[in-house]
Amino acid sequence: MWGGDAAAERRASVRLADTVACLAWAPGQRLASLATLAEAVREVVAGDVAYYRARQCRSKWWSNSCRVAAVGFGALGALQPLITQLWGQSGGPLACLKDTGQLWLMLGGLALVVDTVWAGTQAHGRYTSTVMALEAGMVRWTLAWQGQMAVLAGAEPDGPQTQRLIQSASDFLDAHHALMASEAGQWRGAMQEALAKAKVPGP
């Protein structure tokens, strides 16, 4: 379901690597190469933001679905004694539901866990905060980059200036990927916590 988004993200990173490998840094070519580099960096970030926005929308859909399922299963579990009494006697139309109340309640609880950890509440919050952080980082870097371009005022940068600009792009991408790694770490932590709580204690 998310494979297409991840594939697009990888393609953008590969294009960035290919673009950087083909840039020319001889005098007279540096300014154009820096513009190409900046555009390639923005393309990678835009792809990552789009990836998280897609997951954000999907998590909301899954959250709503899981909550509906939790309410439905919980209602079945709570009403199971009444259902059995009315229609679940031997030979009745719902006899197969006899003594299944605990099962429905467990399924309802599982739906809530899936919603909280994987599909909805926490996931949606993580994706939202990650998108905001990625976009804010992009704005800050773009402003800093344009500030350095303004200092050049269209002139060809010398070697040290070019090196500083390339390093700023590298540092920004490192920080950008660190934010994404942080979101993945939060997901792993939430999943481990949920699994630990779900363990049934021994006798």
UniProtKB/TrEMBL annotation:
In terms of InterPro entries, this protein maps to:
SLATT_2
| Superkingdom of source | Bacteria
Please report the name of this protein according to its UniProt entry.
Answer: SLATT domain-containing protein
Q: Which organism is it from?
A: Ideonella livida
